[in-house]
Amino acid sequence: FLAFGSFATIVIIALVIRMSRKRLSPLGELAIAVRKREFVVHYQPIIELSSGLCVGAEALVRWQRPDGTLVRPDLFIPLAEQSGLIRPITDQVIDAIGRELGPLFRKHRSLHVAINFAADDFKTGRVLETVGHRLGNHGFANDQIWLEATERGLMDIDEARKTIAEARTRGYSVAIDDFGTGYSSLQYLQSLPLDALKIDKSFVDAINRQTATSAVIAHIIEMAKSLSLSIIAEGVETREQAEYLLDHGVEFCQGWFYAKPMPAADFIDYVETSLQR
Ligand code: C2E
Ligand code: CA
Ligand code: CA
Ligand code: CA
Q1: Which of 16, 67, 106, 129 is the most buried (most CB within 10 A)?
Q2: Ligand 1 site: residues with CB under 6 angstroms?
């Protein structure tokens, strides 16, 4: 009876564990993914429009499920931001960049990597310690590191100004991401010591479409130039878009017309062949 009792207990515990796994909340699943380090990074080449050469990459996180499927960041980053899990995820992204791109970046000093930061990463200045420590150890020079923050991430303007100023003192560049999708004004932009502005894909999509939005991109470009900011256009999918951007004095872009985000090994090949040409 005793033996049967303990057997039954084991079966019940096993069943409960199985059921609770199945019913795990999205947050519970994300927490397990963090613990198991299930995040991988893909790299999208950043191209100098005038030469067509690759000058670096944006690091874009994906959640790789145990079955190998990749989950897009917009499906889990919001939850990660709300719950505070974004911090360990950011750390895992930075670790991957160091490990995967260290040798390439020690060899090609002109390359840079752009890293996405959430409001929570940026507000406290925590990013600076993390980046300095984790990428410095792999031989990255600080001027090879670009920090990207969205308008939302820079909402607390005093904190943002402090973090950006400190970042630039250390030699990092700071870009405002998805510019134009929030509420920021020229005045807001002017008050931050930024290096670069990234034009959101929605504006690039409107190029040559004769819609209300197509006038906006010219305006954003003028604004960035008047503040001496570098400009990176994202989501470039056609030759016409690339030509428009080049004609309007935009320096850099990224998009499927040139290359999609790819695993580190492919990006390393891409850079080596791009630089040999
Ligand atoms: P984002 O920073 O605006 O990144 C650009 C997004 O546009 C990426 O989507 C990229 O794959 C996509 N993209 C680039 N070129 C093209 C194109 O020509 N056509 C189309 N249709 N799409 C293009 P992805 O990788 O799905 O990332 C989505 C967002 O998730 C990012 O938007 C960023 O806000 C966030 N994210 C990605 N990685 C990280 C990360 O490590 N940390 C944080 N906090 N956020 C991240
Ligand atoms: Ca970005
Ligand atoms: Ca962006
Ligand atoms: Ca975007």
Answers
A1: 106
A2: 44, 60-61, 72-74, 77, 86, 90, 93, 116-118, 177-178, 201, 234-237, 254-256, 261
| Spatial separation of the C-alpha atoms in residues 223 and 225, rounded to whole Å | 5
* Tens-digit pLDDT string for the chain (277 aa): 567 677 887 787 777 666 655 678 999 999 999 999 999 999 999 999 999 999 999 999 999 999 999 999 999 999 999 999 999 999 999 999 999 999 999 999 999 999 999 888 887 778 898 899 999 999 999 999 999 998 877 777 788 889 999 999 999 999 999 887 777 677 888 889 999 999 999 999 999 888 877 788 999 999 999 999 999 999 999 999 999 999 999 999 999 999 999 999 999 999 999 877 6
Q: Identify the residue whose tokens are 């004609």.
A: 247
Residue 58 CA to residue 178 CA, distance in Å, equals: 13
Ligand 2 centre distance from Cα of residue 247 (Å): 24
Distance 132 CA to ligand 1 centre (A): 23
What number does the ligand 1 atom closest to the CA of 198 have? 3
How far apart CA 60 and CA 40 sit, in angstroms, is: 8
Which bound ligand lies closest to the C-alpha atom of 198?
A: 3
Q: Tell me what ipTM this predicted complex has.
A: 0.97
